[in-house]
Design goal:
The chain has 4 helices and no strands. The protein is an all-alpha fold. It has a domain of 70 residues. The radius of gyration is 30 Å and the shape is elongated. The chain starts with a helix and ends with a helix.
Length: 131
Amino acid sequence: MGSKKKIDSELRELYENAHQRLKQKKRLVTHLVVFLAGSVIFIFVNIGLGYRSDFKPFNNYWFVTALLIWLFFLIIHAINVFIVNNLMGKEWEEKQMNRLVEKQLERLRGLQKKVDKKHPIDELTQDNENS
């Protein structure tokens, strides 16, 4: 019965991880769709309606600068979803956690050695307490 419970918790963890990845990818696709719709709107407002057509940062229409900045953030978002998450995903997290736990245990062992050295427990005292 204990192994079934372990399998269920592992399955649930896999499901939650997959669900989290799906949410990340869904947000990225939503970001892309909003970017495309926003691009059309910016171009229409700047060129079609002539809004602030005299404002030309870097000798370009202002929508070009706005879209380049937005595209930069979209690319950062995609890098985060597809590259960073793969490099620093669940396996990486577990390795880091194990490394940190081992570091803490080593520190505790060192402290225990210092305590044992400073305050040794006499075998006779232990025998008397056990009796």
